[in-house]
Structure formats: structure tokens, C-alpha cells
Amino acid sequence: MKKTLFSLALLALGSTGMTYAQTDYQADSVFIRQIFNSALSDGRSYEWLRDLTQKVGPRLSGSEGAAKAVEYTRDAIVNAKFDNVFLQNVMVPHWVRGAKEKAYIISGKQKINVPIAALGGSVATPKGGTKAKVIEVKNFQELRALGTEKVKGKIVFFNRPMDPTKINTFEAYSGAVDQRGAGASEAAKLGAIGAIVRSMTTRLDDTPHTGSMRYASGAPIIPAAAISTNGAELLSKLIKENADTEIFFEQFSETLPDAPSHNVIGELKGSQNPAQYIVVGGHLDSWDFAQGAHDDGSGCVQSIEAVRLLKDLGYKPKNTLRAVMFMNEENGLRGGVAYADSAKSKKEKHIAAIESDRGGFTPLGFGVVGTPAQKAKIASWSKLFAAYGIHELGPGGGGADIGPLAQQGTVLLGLIPDSQRYFDYHHASNDTFDTISKRELELGGAAMAAMMYLIDKYGVE
Ligand SMILES: [Zn+2]
What we know:
The protein has helices spanning 2-15, 25-42, 45-56, 64-79, 140-151, 169-174, 178-188, 229-241, 293-312, 334-345, 372-379, 382-386, 422-425, 438-458, and strands at 84-96, 102-107, 110-113, 116-118, 130-137, 155-158, 194-198, 224-227, 246-250, 254-268, 273-283, 319-326, 349-355, 363-369, 392-394, 411-417. The protein is α/β, with parallel strands linked by helices. Bound molecules: zinc ion.
């Protein structure tokens, strides 16, 4: 009840032109305008992203590309003249795709090639490939109802689409991604010899979308691949016409020993509380066949830009501000875990962390994970963001890489851009620089800078 009254009081203040207590709304409004003006007229993030996607390119953990991305972003931070830049060691999984996969459907006399991609973490098929009759299911319940008798020796085809009626496409993704993550083991428990999963995308196209999968302990290990959505539609149609439809696929992926890698950290020292930190971050790794422009090159360059904007506008932070490029979000989260472990052992108090990992699209809000009072405080800054089309401060929030900081009570924020086109490109070879809008990218970086500024100035308590 008290909290409700508190929120109402804030709303009442909003209607009189003051959206939060005891602060200089006018000065903040002017400074945030400067942040956006600077980002939109003199921003650096777009050119950094051009280099990261086109000169460095794909950068899956353990790869040469990932090592180059570490060097590239470190240099970018050095050139932007932060107070300090350093690398944090982290051992990462090292999975490699190997030669390009092959797949075709055999139905009656027809033999039709379809685009597939091994799922991250999957084993190879046996030499010469795997061929078997295909069993289509929409979910694990349906699979289990078929039982060992019908599944043994077959290839299971998981074909439940992302729900197109979800306005937040991340909800649609959450509702479908269990097929990719756990489908192979669920099928293997019933004797299947392979798993083919409909790509996690909201559109129909010929581009397979990969992503990580994991083997359940105790289940037989079978190969798993994503099929393009057009391929999935075709396969489903052919199975309906001919229940004896088979699929052949061959892939060459393998997991090598863990490899050394790094998080990249740039910082501006705090003038009052240098041992207290506010982080903005994204993840530096991308899938092996993707430039990772949206996922998550955007989040990386926006993070560096957020700190740079504050520095170049002459802002002197009270707390130490960090831009963190986390390594290995896609297939292990080792960077995020290593960062939080290091913060804990060095007793670095993290006030808040802001992650951008939902694409470089028009920012619409921030999700906030914190106590009701912390959320109310951040929501009280809404009016400062409204001029920039950012209206949602609260629902959703956080990010995978900053998640491990929750153990020390850090407030976690996630930049929330428009999600409608994100899964067109997610984990696919078409996640390229040319799909990035310079302005949309810059608005996101500026929004992160503004949020970082307000948290630094007013805290979150
Ligand atoms: Zn990502």
C-alpha cells in the first residue's frame, strides 16, 4: 500500500512538471538533449560497427575472429581515450562447424536439397551422413506420446513455429526455443538418430538460424540441425503427402578443448566513489557464419559509445563507469560469469548494469530488474526519455551477460528496442551491417548514456 502511494505521489509530481523529487529536471533535460545531439550528429558507433562486422566479421568464442574482436574493441576504447582499458581472462568453449552441412528430402522419386545449419554444440553426423524416415512433432508432449516404438531409428523434426500473434517477438522466441535447446536429447531418449529443428524466426525464408543446444546427461548423443523455415514448410507438406518421407543430413561439427579468451573492459574513473561501478555492456561473440551486426555487435558499440559520449561531453562521473564487451554469451556465458566472479572477489560494488542485446533497432524503453522502490525511482525519470520515443521504463529487463551480477544485488537494466525485425536476422548469415540503421543504432547508444548518467547522478536507492 505504501509503495502504491509512493508511485502515485511520483505521478502527481509528473503532472506538475517535476517527475522526481529533489532533482534538477531542467539541467538533466538539457544534458540529455546534448547526449542525443552529440550521438546523432557526431556519433562513432556506426563506424565501429562497420569495422567489427566487416573487418573482423564472425567471432564465435575460441575463433580467430573472436580474438580479433577483442583487439579491435580494445583499440577502439584506447583511441576514444578512456581512463583505462584492460582485458579479463576467461576460458571459453570452442565449438567449430567444420565444412558446410548438406541436407535433402527424399519423398517418392523426389530428392530436394534444403538449407540446414548444425546447432551450436551439436556433434557431427556419422561419416557419410544420416538418413532416416522423418517424424514430425510440434512439442515434447506429442513426441513422448509417440513413444520409442514410433521414434526409434527415425529423425525427429520439431516444427512448432514461433507464435506470430505475440507482439513482443522475444515472447514468441521463448515459446519455441525449447525445441532447439533440448529437442535432440528428448528425441534421443526415445531412440531417434537425429533431430531437425525449424529455425527460430518469425518469417519464411531460406536462411537457417542456428543457436545453442545442449545434451541432457544420460541421453544418447545425436546430431541436431536447424532447417530454414521454407525448408520446414516443404518437409511438413511432403510428410503429409507421403508418410515414408526421409531426410538425409551430413554435418561436420565438433567441440574442441576450451580456449583462452577475454572480456574487454574500458572505464572512466569515478571522482567520488571510484570503487563503485555502473556497467553498460553487450556481448562480443557472434555465431560463426554471422557478422553479428544486431547480435550483438550493436550492443558492444553502443556500450563504448555510451561511455564515450559522457566523457566527450565533459561529464565527471561520481562512480566508475565501465563499458564491458562480454565474451561467450552465445554458447556458454563464461564471460558474464567470469565478470561477476571477479567483481565479487575484488569487492567491486556494482550499482547497476545495463545490457543491450536485442538488436540495434529503435529504442523504446528499458526493462528494469530490481526492488519495487528501485523500479519506481527509475520509472520517475520517464519524462526525461519521452522526447526520444522511449516510453517504457520497467517491464522486462536485464540481459544474459549481466545476469550473474544479480547475486550482489545489482540493479539490472536491458535496453528494449523495437523487436519486430530482430528474429529476421537472429543467429543467421543475414545478420549483416547493411541491415543496421545508423540513426536507430545511435538512438540506442544515447539512451544508454542518458540512463547511465541518471543512475550515476541519483543512484538507484
Ligand atoms: Zn545476443
